[in-house]
Specification:
Layout (H helix, E strand, L loop, with lengths): L2 H5 L7 E6 L17 E5 L2 E6 L3 E5 L4 H15 L1 E4 L9 E5 L7 E5 L2 E6 L2 E8 L22 E4 L4 H16 L5 E11 L7 H10 L4 E5 L2 E5 L2 E6 L2 E12 L4 H13 L1 H18 L3 E5 L5 E4 L3 E12 L8 H8 L7 E2 L1 H11 L10 E6 L4 E5 L3 E5 L2 E10 L5 H19 L2
Parallel strand pairs: 1-5
Antiparallel strand pairs: 1-9, 2-3, 2-12, 3-8, 4-7, 6-7, 6-20, 8-9, 10-11, 11-19, 11-23, 12-13, 13-22, 14-15, 14-21, 15-18, 16-18, 17-18, 20-21, 22-23
This protein binds the ligand C=C(O[C@@H]1C=C(C(=O)O)C=C[C@H]1O)C(=O)O.
The site of the ligand C=C(O[C@@H]1C=C(C(=O)O)C=C[C@H]1O)C(=O)O has 17 residues, from strand 11, strand 15 and strand 23.
Length: 419
């Protein structure tokens, strides 16, 4: 028996009701209360939530399977009235899973507000009776973060460059092809963080990323590990990065060079293969584009490939969460071969990744959902915030350039926390 199985609560009957609402032009993030906010927003669409009707915490190698079994039981016993019936309406849980076998959680909120184009809805979820939808109001403005002081986390920049060199040596010695190494920074704030402030900034500045907050983990990730929507799956694979200069013409030339760079194309190919291989057993057909496109973000550009598939209806364990479990950790955050890369990360990285680079997102009662990779992210507790960034290392990676790349990847969260 696993840790989580012993802690599994007995079957409870959740009652959920979804009704349409008119949100006008109110942004989802403006509805969030200061405490207990959950968020998943992209380009104005998504779901935000608050309150907590149920939760499961899981750890260890079975953290995904235990959470998935719990969710099946909860949804199997639930009473759901859903007049909207789109992915994300009805019963939903938000979740965040650790990169390694440590603490992970699924949270069933008590109120969820969603938007999908012109359609908006509110869902109430309770333990016993039908609850009428609350009147939705724009909440008090968040308190902006003040006085952030940034310092090295577990390792200095120079120290990290030296472990990048160790990794390239291992790759050149033929031990593996690619490993993703990460580092952390610490920010100390003058007052406890009101996480809504960075969420507002991230959702505004990075509209083509998924801005999220689950249980103290927040960020704006450009990488979709897996989206499942009515039998269709999609995974956006990123690997291969170039920093932006702020000069548009120069950036376009850099984008063209990125799309031709054999180092970046090689690194990218490893990541695409790892995703396609993991999705294949659950799909009846798949589309893996032959060449990547360049994804432009305000701070960096990435080589990107959208892998798509049709879920095999006979495949049982193919909810969005099951697929995320099969995909994690992809070569975008682990490496190739996976086991050798994870072992090298354990040996070289002097920190616990926590929930950085793990799956973060949501699942509904049909098994549809979206799980991003928690990148461009941070974990906070009171006044202390830990920011993370990592880079894919291949044989000819240059440690100094990788450090600069990691700094560019820290920009979204740094800016979101600065005065
Ligand atoms: C690991 C991170 O990013 C990943 C690594 C990339 C790379 O090395 O080119 C690009 C995108 C992500 O898949 C991160 O942002 O922390």
């Amino acid at each position: 028996m696993t840790d989580a199985a012993t802690a599994l609560p007995g079957p409870r009957t959740l009652v959920a009701q979804t009704v349409r609402v008119e949100l006008g032009d109110v942004a989802l993030e403006h509805l969030l209360p200061r405490q207990g906010a959950l968020a998943w927003i992209r380009d104005g669409d998504g779901i935000v939530a608050w309150g907590e009707t149920a939760r499961i915490e899981t750890t260890g190698p079975n953290r995904f399977a235990d959470a998935s079994a719990w969710w099946r039981r909860m949804t199997g016993h639930a009473v759901v009235r859903d007049s909207v019936d789109v992915p994300g309406s009805g019963l939903v849980a938000f979740g965040s899973f650790a990169f390694g076998p440590s603490s992970s959680a699924l949270i069933v909120p008590s109120v969820v507000v969603g938007r999908r184009g012109d359609l908006a809805w509110v869902t109430t979820i309770s333990d016993s009776a039908l609850v009428t939808a609350p009147t939705l109001r724009v909440t008090d403005p968040p308190t902006p973060p003040r006085g952030a002081v940034f310092s090295d986390g577990s390792i200095s920049g120079a120290g990290w460059e030296s472990i990048v060199s160790d990794a390239t040596a291992a790759i050149r010695a033929g031990e593996l092809d690619k490993v993703v190494l990460a580092r952390d920074l610490v920010a100390d704030l003058a007052e406890p963080l009101d996480v809504r402030a960075p969420l507002h900034r991230l959702a505004g500045a990075y509209p083509n990323c998924w801005t999220f907050h689950v249980d103290g983990l927040f960020g704006a990730t450009p990488e979709m590990l897996v989206r499942r929507e009515r039998g269709l799956v999609m995974s956006r694979v990123l690997a291969g990065t170039i920093r932006r200069t702020g000069d548009d013409e120069h950036d376009l030339a850099l984008a063209a060079s990125l799309a031709r760079s054999s180092k970046d194309l090689e690194e990218h190919e490893y990541a695409v293969r790892s995703v396609a291989d993991a999705l294949e057993p659950s799909c009846s057909s798949m589309n893996v584009p032959e060449a990547p496109f360049v994804l432009h973000l305000p701070n960096v550009m990435h080589l990107a490939t959208d892998v798509a598939g049709v879920v095999d209806p006979d495949h049982e364990a193919a909810s969005a969460l099951d697929l995320a479990a099969a995909l994690h950790p992809s070569a975008a955050v682990g490496g190739t071969p996976r086991a050798v890369a994870l072992d090298l990360i354990d040996r070289l990285e002097p920190m616990d990744r926590g929930r950085y680079a793990g799956p973060v997102g949501w699942i509904d009662a049909d098994g549809d959902g979206e799980w991003g990779i928690a990148l461009r992210s941070a974990e906070y507790d009171g006044t202390r915030v830990r920011l993370f960034a990592g880079c894919g290392i291949v044989a000819d990676s240059d440690p100094e350039a990788e450090l600069a790349e990691s700094q560019a990847k820290l920009v979204p969260i740094r800016d979101a926390l600065s005065d």
